[in-house]
Amino acid sequence: MLTSAILASIAFCFPQAGTIPPAASPAQAPNVQAIVGANLIDGTGSKPLLSSVIVVVDGRIQAIGKLDGNKTVTLTGEPLSIPAGAHRLFAKNKWIIPGLIDSHVHIDEVLDPAEFTQYGVTCVRDVGSRLSSIQKLRKRASSDPRVPQVLWMGRNIDEGKASWWGAVAAKNTADVPRVIDEMERQGVDGVKLYVNAGPSVTTEVIKQAHDRGWPVTAHLGKTTPLHAVLAGIDNLEHVSTLFLQFAPAANKSTDADSWYKGYASAAGANPHSPEALALLKFMARRGTIVTPTLISSTLPVLGKAAADDAYGDWAEISDAWRTDWARPYWDFMKTKGWKRSQIENAKLAIWNYNDYVHQIIKNGVPVIAGTDTPAPWVLPGASLLVELEMLVKAGMSPLEAIHSATGRPATLMHRDDEFGIIAPGRVADFVILNGNPLTRFSDIHRIAGVYRSGNKVPKSSVAVQRTESKR
Which domain CATH number covers 346? Predict the structure, then answer.
């Protein structure tokens, strides 16, 4: 669970609770496997299936049943035969969840993508990296089970001028089709709007993307959350950007480099104001999904001690990451030069962010889990487990938290027929746990094994150096 330093800092007051080819499955998957006796959480949000039997053939789930005394039966009680020669893994008293999905990642900035799977993250949604990076990752993932599958939201879409190296820009509304056509040629799975996109461009991007069957998310800046929701957006990134709707006008931040301004704005906002709650009720009616990324609002401010406390003895912060985060590149997400009063303001903002996530959950707004990996102290893979713990602390049930990192993001991305849930026909991406996360959520750390496309992910050392220049 999250440890004392972070919880004390936040002071929670709510209760516990080219063209990209399709991603391929590793070719070396064992032919037939049967995982027998584990308790199954299938990623749909349904109650667990106790003493389950899962049959995997060529990297895909063929059948699901359960133990009935000494027999294996289907969910309707008919006999379930395990193919002859199957490798049987007896997993009594263990728990199985789908491979996890981190819905907010920047692959261009990750030292080694193989770190994700060490913590059960078998799929990532990239929100801004370069085409070449995605191509390399997908090629590697096709033969290496240590590397996660990747969904790509293309380069971030700004208006007028690109706000950073990870963005492209439409000159105006009439220029949007050009940008979207280019993304279609590149093979995106969806698109992400960015801070410089105004209301008209935002509306046109959503329309053009939906015409192609793509989901749309956004890190808002010059467009209000309400406008984006009215325009039909599917997903909004960062709970902090929702504060644009109701934060004090003088402090509102609309620039990518105004990191402190965002905290100052949120520190002076009221997450329980009528306008704040009205936004959530409207989002709940429309089914607009939020990716809160609480961890990336928290650890870069609270720093090393809080990060060491969060990851405890179950995740290693390598010297490679400590060195990488010390580079000037990351100064835009550091408190370097801040006054004590600014640090205290940021802590108040963090409290407000968590309070508002509590309201998001309470009001029925759907949530998916993402981390903004690798922001300072936000480790690949391990950070998603911390993010899930933060969501549970904010009032989400453990079952719903698991759904937020499995079935729900897969459905948003129109890929739940492939992964995100454990069901016949899906890719056999799953995590075996040594404890019950529904009764003690910190058992999400107690990983006995990670499987991607039916292959057990081997343990690997943490990255020690950057293998290529990423920026």
Answer: 3.20.20.140
Q: Average pLDDT in the 441-464 region? A: 86
Contact (Cβ atoms closer than 8 angstroms) between residue 85 and residue 450:
no
Nearest in space to 43 (alpha carbons), one of 54, 33, 32: 54
Q: What pLDDT score does 249 carry? A: 65
> What is the sign, positive or negative, of the torsion defined by CA atoms of 300, 305, 306, 307?
positive
Q: Where does the pLDDT of residue 461 fall: very low under 50, low under 70, confident under 90, or very high at 90 and above? A: low
Which whole number is the average pLDDT over 232-245? 97
Segments forming the whole domain that contains residue 117: 4-17+100-420
Residue 16 vs residue 269, higher pLDDT: 269
Residue 143 covered by a domain: yes
pLDDT (0 to 100) of residue 16: 38
- Which distant-in-sequence residues (6+ apart) come within 8 Å of 161 by Cβ? 169, 196
- Any domain includes 452: no
* Contact in structure between 365 and 283 (CB atoms under 8 Å): yes
Q: Is 7 in contact with 310 (CB distance < 8 Å)?
A: no
Is residue 173 assigned to a domain? yes
292 domain residue, yes or no? yes
Percent of the chain with pLDDT over 90: 83
User: Of all helices (H) and strands (E), which one includes residue 343?
Assistant: helix 340-362
Domain count across the chain: 1
Strand order in the sheet with 121-126: 100-105, 121-126, 149-152
| Closest to 404 (Cα-Cα) out of 328, 296, 291, 315 | 291
Instruction: Render pLDDT for 115-137 as a digit per residue (tens, 0 to 9).
Output: 999 999 999 999 999 999 999 99
Does the pLDDT of residue 15 top 70, yes or no?
A: no
Q: Is residue 320 over pLDDT 60?
A: yes
> What's the CA gap between 253 and 245, in Å, rounded?
11
Going from the C-alpha of 91 to that of each of 35, 50, 335, 434, the distances in angstroms are: 7, 11, 46, 9
| CB neighbour class for 465 (10 Å; exposed up to 12, middle 13-18, buried from 19) | exposed
Q: Which helix (H) or strand (E) holds 177?
A: helix 176-186
